[in-house]
Each structure stands twice: as C-alpha cells, then as structure tokens.
Amino acid sequence: MIKLNLKYTKVAHKMQKYQSQIDNIHQVIIDRTGEGNEMLDWYDWANKITDTEINAINFKIKNLKTINKIDTLLVIGIGGSYLGAKAGIDFIKGKMRADDKIIFAGINLSGSYYKQIEEKLKNRNWAICVISKSGKTIEPAIAFRYFSDLLEKKVGKAKMKDLITVITDQKKGLLNDFVDKYNYQKFVIPDGIGGRFSAITAVGLFPMAFAGVDIIKILNGVRKANNDLKSNKLKDNIAYQYAVTRYILHKKNKLTSEIFITYSEDFLMLQEWLKQLFAESEGKKGKGLLPNSLTYTRDLHSLGQFIQEGKKTFFETNIWQESEESEIKILKNDLDLDNLNYLEGKTIDYVNKQALKGVVKAHVENGNIANIIISFKRNDELTLGYLWYFFFIAVTCSGYLLKINPFNQPGVEIYKNNLNKNLRIKK
Ligand code: PA5
Question: Are 345 and 330 in contact (CB under 8 A)?
C-alpha cells in the first residue's frame, strides 16, 4: 500500500543492530506494558468501532443534508480535535474543493478569522459539530459560545437540537453538560485514544463523512495497516524501519530536525497533522526531533536556498504520490515565445515528478542531506487510513526508542492552564 525507500539515507545498513531493541518495544506495545499504555486503544480501534456507530454517523449526516438542507458544516475544535479531519478532507477531496463546505473554527483567537467565517456563513444553511476531548479547551469553547449564539439567532432555539453535534469524552468535560441540557446528538472519543491519534474515531470520521469521504474505506485502510505492520522483524515492518532510521539519523548523525516534504498543496494539512503527532509524542524531557514541513516546489523558491546550502541540522522525509492525479497537460503554442513547446503533451504531474527526482539528487548528492521517501499510489481513503496507522506505529516506536511516554503532552497542558489563569485575572 505504501513504500518506504531508505536508499538515500545512507544509514539503512545500520538498522539491523536495533533488532533486539525493536523486539522489546514490539512486545511492550502488544502486551501494553510500556509507559502510557492506557492510551493505546487506537491500536485495534478499527476492529472495535461498531457498525452501529458508523451507521449513526452516516445517518446523522444524511439527516443534516436531506431533512435539514444543511450545505455547510462548521467544525469547532483544535489540535487533535481538528487536524486529522482537515488533513483527511484535503488529502482526499483536494484542498481547493475542500475549503468550501466545511469550515473550521476554534483553531485560533483571531477576531478577523471569526468575522470572515461569519461573512461566509451568511448565505449558507449551516450546522455545528463541536469537538473537544477535554471539553475545556478555551479556543473551541469560545468559538462554540459565539457560533452557537449566531446559529440560534438564525434558526431559533427549537431547531438547535437538530443542528448541533457534540464529539467529546464519555463523561468528563463541560460539553457533556450541553448534551444533558439540550439533548444534542453526541459521539464519544474513547478514553484510551489521545487527541493526535483520534482521526480514526468520530473526531475525524464525522467531518470527513460530511465532506463525502467514505469512512468505511478509511477504517479498511487502518485495518490493512494493522494487519501488515504486525511483525516484530525489522525487515518485514516498514513502520519500525522508518522509526529506527530517523532514530539513527537523530542519535548517530546528530541531526535535530525532520522536515516532512510534499509536492502538493493537498497534503499540506497532512504535514500539519504529522507535526502534531511527532512533536507532542517525542518532544519531552529535552528529547526528540523537531518536526517541520515544506511544500515543494513552492518552498524551493524561498527556503530552498537554506535547505541546499545552510547549516545541516535536519533530514527530509518525502511523502510522495506516485500516480498522476490529473490529466492536465502542457499544450502546444504556435508562437512558443516561452520556449516550452518541448514539453508539449507532458502532464503537470510528470513535471512534478521530474522536480522530485532533481531535488532529491541535489539535496542528497550536493547537499549531503539524508532523504527518506514514503510513497503511495493514490490519494484515496484506503491509503489515508493506512498512512495514518503507519505513522501511529512509527511514532510509538520512536517514543519508546527515546525512552519517553509517547502518549502524553504535559507541555501543552502548561500553556492551556496559563491562558485560563490569565483570562480569569481581573485587570
Ligand atoms: O494532543 C492534544 O492533547 C492536544 O493537542 C489536543 O488535541 C488539543 O489541545 C485539543 O484538546 P481537546 O480535544 O481536549 O479540546
């Protein structure tokens, strides 16, 4: 389903030395005995989620669209309660198409952003899906208060019950008080699945289903990866191979940053999702690789100079789609003033592929930058589910290689608490 090419890292031959460490880590994951193991419920979630839940998600969306004539969903959530859905929708539907019918709020504290959403919603029939595991994160809480008030003014109190969906913890958090009081439809975020692993639960599935993504196929992709990535043997498990390679580049080659590279705007939010996954999982106790991201060829015309010739503290992990997504071709022009007729009949995606080849060669050979290539054929549901799960296994293994708990995020909580305190101080 996905391929891992480690040829351009020049460290693949060192991997086998880590087999015994991987044996231990594998056992710890399977037996659920490692640090943070109570947050491992994502591991076989795709086999546990019930048809009843999937049907309920699809039923609610059908109901919103057909009975309530809803054309736009305002999804309120941040971090793990936002990035998976946004990444998934852009990946499958394409960024420009995706931006229209799903609007994400609660992802910042910018008044201007609120205003723009309000303007966009003016002529739409819209509903709200509010997502927060803790139910107390300030950004989505403020957005929920603001936009539910706006919706109530538009449709009236009685209609709100049909138009608000809540995705939150089974029992904890203030959103449950809203569900109890107003009888809003609710989907549960399982206790043992943290925010950054929750894209495969209702958190990601509900918004994606509204956008027309086939969520059953997403879960099939997750199941396939769960099945394929079960081996403790490095030679048979590409998620462990990837984890060990980035560990060697970090520890032995002393690199401090991993840059996720894509060649499509549609994968930009997948990169943002990856940054959260790796930063929150690895960045603690003074350890971890700083995850970063660049979109080529756009960023080759800005940061490209630094990447090629600047201080070498990083390696690149390319996420590359092999198949050509569109048939858009370069056409013949009779005057040929731009001297491009030699490209007549070539697709834009073909040119993109030549760019990848040229960039990897320039960076590896001239820049001495290790390059990992993770490639896949299609930007479809099966691939996305597979990719997500591949990265879940890889990041868990990476965390355990670094001897940290990959599942908590104490640093995020510090900021959240400070913000809450500051807002309560009377000035
Ligand atoms: O990974 C995390 O825990 C965070 O990034 C959360 O996903 C984010 O802060 C949102 O939290 P919540 O879903 O509780 O509102």
Answer: yes
